[in-house]
Design goal:
The complex is a heterodimer of chains A (about 625) and B (about 350). Chain A has 21 helices and 22 strands. By secondary structure, chain A is an alpha/beta fold. Chain B has a domain of about 220 residues: Thiamin diphosphate (ThDP)-binding fold, Pyr/PP domains (Rossmann fold), CATH 3.40.50.970. Classes of the chains: A alpha/beta (about 625), B alpha/beta (about 350).
Chain lengths: ~625, ~350
């Protein structure tokens, strides 16, 4: 049976090719930005997640919406790792690479393992496309030694897709747009995936256009059937479900988890959420997600600029809303003055920084951890702001609530730091029960605290937080602003002693937050040769590396910080128990410098500034170098 | 907004805060503050439901001197702060106090968007054509040739007209008055306070230290009627101490001053603050002394749903359609799977 016959019939016949079992597989789909690679990557992830694998994903797309077709700059990729064990990253090296055109092959083949499977759409290797990818000759030619290390499959995907949809009356252009589903179908066969979730998705997505739905279904089936009917593929693989903690799961990206975490925090506090934002990559999805939640009482405001987004949340917080803004580096830089006003007026608010490569416009779609200094120091005056950082896509849910809890309990702006990698990356999320979540206590005074002298907006409680009195409350009329305030009364004050007192008080208030956060945990030996300290989205790669080295018998422990300002109280004591400290970061050493300055610890850095996450092996190599050195 | 009839009767005194006022003696701001304090108690709104938001500049100290809820923001950002507040709390009446530098220079973007969205804010822009708090630099409304500390040889920058900006942004209420013209200012502020949607009021304000007398033509009792036209809805444009002059549209499409001895009233321009199209308001806004008499009063007052009202309505509609938000349903949306 030919591929198109199988597609027509919609059945796959008897598949008697041998099947091998693997634990962990990394697949990457890459092609032109118009080829639909993000879509098929997401579908493969969903199918794997629903099947029960642990999954982790890394979408990688250009900043340009449509760079010139076929160009190297226009290549879009989606990598995912799925496993029957626990995984924490989308994987280092690729097992199966699908390249839809020469540019995709050129820019991605370097990440394919030796002996890995390479599937290319040979129809796209025409003279013009080869030239756009700067190939002098066709790399698919039999005598090309560069690709000899791989199991190469040149598949005429464009032609087979056209055959599969023949008779539906599609234009050639429409027919060709289905070829991503052909590729997806082929890889689904290769890894013995269930097509049904994707078929259901296609049917519902294109419900209004049954012809396109049918075409995509045929392409998917044609790709699948091509796998088992062609002699080129001699074997396929299966990856058993992972042993995850029991419960109901869904796949979640970091931005989705931030949005749900914020909506949850508002519910737990019994308040309405106000979100002021301005579109910016890679933070916009938070605005998109929250804009849908109108029936949750979420008010979203797409402001005229980043400054208005930040100042609008100050107004909303003054009015008593749980107020949030999100942005990425360039936007956070613009919000700096407003965040200072939030610190001065001591109003609760959360600022989400979804970091990307900088400085300036930098690398909008690539990940980096280079805004830690910005969040720590990026304001005029002595202006402390608490900082928490999520460690994975699903952890964004918990940390968004935690940021809001701190903001409300301590009456302060709080930074929640994530990055492009965990914002767009996805992983399985164990869906929580609302009753299991910690309530957020949020009160507004209704009576004056001034013993007959009027309301005192800066009379503090034991945590040093001031009362959150809101407009509409009779008798508590008061004025806030950016001028220095006299403690207790809140009147404008230029008194030198008061200013020093207020600077110290604001700092002490933020330091007090350490009383309300869990002590730092360490994974590994309680003392030893090496402590690896990480923060934010590098958690998965660092923990995977440390675990590997621990299995090899190295004396190495992992300490991952989710609270960066203030640090957990026991951190200094932890540092004292290890001979060396390594701080891997996707920046030039920002946390390392802060740790050295705060704890006088002789921390060593492992720094990568390529707009890409760490590979596990990069960290393993450094650990071996350091732990090995201390052993000798 | 609550309009409970059992409200205690308030007076201007109830709106005076205990803070010492630090504007320069004889600053025009004093008069504006006095008129605002006079208007607020007449609106039937509980005192605690007023919020006064400002930016930076002399005028922006205003909230400290009113015993309402107040917010002294950062330079230029008052409209954005006020927008966030109004969206979160549509029940409050929110006033924005700004100046020509604060509102039209550093904060021009926010002013423009607050106006075009028609957020229900009462925006009072004190225009003194100078930077006062930073001690005398030229502002975006200073005339060409103006000599200041930063333009010792005269300004070469074309000024903009606050009213043209507001009308260009489709403001639903636009008015102008003068700081010391107490009765006129009170009337204009009252009308602004009662307008639903954004109300933009430009107040000519004398900075007697750095730009003294800039608006003398409009404030001198004996001559202002010759220099200004006091707009009345549905009435012809007549002015002058003896009300013997009028303004009609010339053959070139531009306004021209005529003597009522020679031209009939019916041939004059008739003011229509509710005109569907803002062209008349724009034309009036461009009439400048000394070439023409400057119009004072309400240029435009039309009805359009406010941003905050539409946003609240959308929240209600979505809730009605999809039911109140259920977080656990949200968590479980999309593809889920069970691990046993």
């Amino acid at each position: 049976m030919s591929a198109s016959d199988a597609a027509q019939s919609g059945t796959t016949g008897v598949d008697d090719k041998p099947i091998e079992t693997l634990e962990t597989v990394v697949v990457r789909f890459c092609g032109d930005s118009g080829d639909g690679m993000q879509l098929v990557g997401t579908q493969f992830t969903n199918v794997s997640a629903v099947f029960g694998n642990d999954v982790s994903t890394l979408p990688d797309f250009p900043a340009e919406i449509r760079a010139p077709a076929g160009s190297l700059a226009g290549v879009s990729g989606y990598q995912l790792c799925f496993s029957s064990g626990e995984i924490y990253t989308p994987g280092d090296a690729v097992d199966t690479l699908v390249a839809m055109n020469p540019a995709a092959l050129k820019t991605n083949v370097g990440d394919l393992k030796r002996g890995g499977t390479l599937i290319v759409n040979e129809d796209a290797f025409d003279k013009s496309s080869l030239s756009k990818a700067h190939y002098d000759r066709n790399p698919l030619s039999a005598d090309n030694a560069d690709l000899a290390a791989f199991r190469k499959h040149s598949v005429p995907m464009t032609r087979l897709t056209r055959d599969a949809v023949d008779g539906l009356g599609l234009s050639q252009r429409e027919a060709d747009r289905c070829k991503n589903f052909f590729a997806l179908g082929l890889v689904m066969w290769l890894y013995d995936r269930d097509r049904k979730p994707t078929e259901d998705w296609i049917t519902s997505k294109f419900a209004r256009n049954p012809t396109i739905a049918e075409a995509n279904l045929r392409a998917l089936r044609a790709g699948y059937n091509f796998g088992f009917s062609t002699e080129a593929f001699t074997v396929h693989y299966e990856v058993a479900p992972a042993e995850l903690p029991p419960g109901r799961y869904r796949k979640v990206t970091g931005n989705e988890a931030v949005a749900m975490g914020l909506a949850t925090a508002a519910k737990l506090a019994g308040k309405d959420l106000f979100y002021g934002g301005y579109p910016i990559t890679p933070a916009s999805d938070i605005l998109h997600e929250l804009s849908r939640l109108k029936n949750f009482g979420v008010r979203t405001f797409q402001a005229e600029d980043e400054i208005a987004a930040a100042t609008s949340i100050i107004g909303a917080a003054f009015g008593g809303a749980l107020a949030v803004t999100a942005s990425s580096g360039p936007g956070i830089a613009l919000k700096g003055e407003a965040i200072g006003l939030g610190v001065m007026t001591e109003l609760p608010m959360v600022i989400v920084n979804v970091q990307r490569g900088g400085p300036s416009t930098g690398l909008p779609t690539k990940t980096e951890q280079s805004d830690l200094y910005l969040c720590y120091y990026g304001r005029n005056g002595d202006c402390p702001v608490p900082i928490v950082a999520a460690q994975s896509p699903a952890d964004c849910f918990a940390m968004a609530q935690e940021a809001m809890r701190i903001a409300v309990e301590y009456m302060t702006p709080v930074f929640l730091m994530t990055d492009g990698y965990i914002a767009n990356g996805a992983e399985p999320w164990l869906i929580p029960k609302l009753d299991d979540l910690k309530p957020i206590v949020c009160t507004h005074p209704t009576e004056s605290n001034g013993n007959g002298d009027g309301f005192l907006p800066y009379l503090r409680n034991e945590r040093l937080a001031r009362p959150w009195a809101i407009p509409g409350t009779p008798g508590l009329e008061h004025r806030l602003g950016g001028l220095e305030k006299a403690d207790v009364t809140g009147n404008v004050s230029y008194d030198p002693d008061n200013h020093e007192h207020m600077v110290a008080t604001r700092a002490r208030k933020v330091a007090n937050i350490a009383d309300s956060i869990p002590p730092q945990e360490v994974n590994g030996p309680e003392s030893g040769d090496l402590l690896v300290v990480s923060w934010g989205g590098t958690y998965g790669a660092v923990w995977s590396a440390v675990r590997q080295c621990q299995k090899r018998g190295l004396s190495v422990a992992h300490c991952h910080l989710r609270y960066l300002n203030p640090f957990p109280k026991n951190l200094a004591e932890i540092f004292s128990r290890y001979q060396q400290v390594l701080v891997p970061e996707l920046n030039t050493g920002q946390l390392r410098t802060i740790l050295r300055g705060t704890f006088l610890v002789d921390a060593v850095g492992l720094n990568k500034i390529k707009g890409k996450p760490f590979l596990i092996t990069e960290i393993v190599d450094k650990i071996e170098e350091m732990a090995g050195r201390s052993n000798s | 907004m609550s309009t409970d009839v059992s409200l205690p009767v308030l007076t201007a005194k109830d709106f005076a805060s205990d803070q010492e006022i630090r504007w320069c003696p004889r600053c025009g701001d004093y008069s504006i503050l006095a008129q605002v304090k006079k208007v607020l108690p007449t609106l039937g709104i509980p005192k605690e439901n007023f919020v006064c938001v400002s930016g930076i500049g002399c005028s922006s100290r205003f909230p400290y001197y009113l015993d309402t809820y107040g917010f002294h923001g950062i330079h230029g950002r008052a409209p954005a702060i006020a927008t966030g507040l109004k969206i979160a709390r549509p029940d409050l009446q929110v006033w924005v106090i700004t100046g020509d530098g604060d509102g039209l220079s550093i904060g021009g973007n926010h002013l423009m968007h607050a106006i075009r969205r028609n957020v229900d804010l009462k925006i009072i822009l004190f225009n003194n054509q100078i930077y006062g708090l930073t001690k005398g630099q030229y502002s975006p409304t200073s005339p060409i040739g103006k000599r200041t500390k930063s333009t010792p040889f005269g300004s070469v920058a074309n000024p903009l007209s606050p009213l043209s900006v507001a009308i260009g942004c489709e403001a639903t209420f636009v008015a102008r008055s003068v700081d010391v013209d107490i009765k006129h200012l009170t009337t204009v502020l009252e009308r602004a306070a009662h307008h639903k949607g954004v109300a933009f009021v430009e107040v000519y304000q004398d900075c007697n230290v750095f730009n003294s007398g800039a608006f003398e033509f409009a404030s001198k009792k004996d001559s202002k009627a010759d220099h200004c036209i006091y707009l009345e809805h549905g009435k012809p444009l007549i002015f002058g101490n003896n009300r013997d002059k009028g303004v009609r549209l010339g053959g070139d499409g531009l306004p021209q001053v005529v003597s009522l001895d020679e031209v009939a009233e019916d041939d004059l321009i008739f003011h229509d603050e509710k005109a569907r199209d803002p062209s008349l308001a724009f034309l009036l806004g461009r009439m400048r002394y000394p070439d023409l008499p400057e119009p004072m009063g309400v240029f435009r007052s039309v009805e359009r749903p406010s941003y905050d009202e539409l946003l609240c309505r959308q929240l209600e509609e979505v809730t009605e359609k999809s039911g109140p938000g259920d977080l656990e349903k949200l968590f479980n949306s999309g593809d889920t799977w069970e691990v046993k």
